[in-house]
């Protein structure tokens, strides 16, 4: 898969992993890896970008004597997901156009 395309999908997969519950980096990697490969070196810049755009908020919790950083989906993040999903028809149209041209003889 194209790197730029994958990068865009990863952002929404990370946001989606936070819909049901707040989470931390390692758990987000485990959750998202069920549908698309992601590494720590990829995740943390995405999380930072999402935080800078106010799509997620962070807080820390002590766990086994160490502080663990949790990420929480914001209302802006939920709206960002909805915007992505409402644009999905256009993505499907692009896919079908490309597929049709490829198979057009």
The strand order across the widest sheet is 1-3-2
Q: SSE order in H/E notation?
A: HEHHEEHH
Question: Which CATH class is shown?
Answer: Mainly Alpha
Average pLDDT rating = 94
Note the total helix count: 5
Binned strand content: 15-25%
Gyration radius from CA atoms, angstroms? 16 Å
Estimate the helix proportion, in percent. 55-70%
Secondary structure: elements and pairs:
Layout: H1 3-17, E1 23-24, H2 25-32, H3 40-52, E2 56-63, E3 66-73, H4 75-86, H5 88-103
Antiparallel strand pairs: 1-3, 2-3
General description of the model:
The protein is of the alpha+beta class. The protein has one domain (3-103): Winged helix-like DNA-binding domain superfamily/Winged helix DNA-binding domain (Arc Repressor Mutant, subunit A). Helices cover 61% and strands 17% of the residues. It contains five helices and three strands. The chain has helices spanning 3-17, 25-32, 40-52, 75-86, 88-103, and strands at 23-24, 56-63, 66-73. Strands 1-3-2 form a three-stranded antiparallel sheet. The model has no long low-confidence stretch (mean pLDDT 94). Pfam families: PadR (PF03551). It comes from Coprobacillus cateniformis. InterPro entries: Metal_resp_DNA-bind_regulator, Tscrpt_reg_PadR_N, WH-like_DNA-bd_sf, WH_DNA-bd_sf. Residues 14-82 form the Transcription regulator PadR N-terminal domain. This is PadR family Transcriptional regulator.
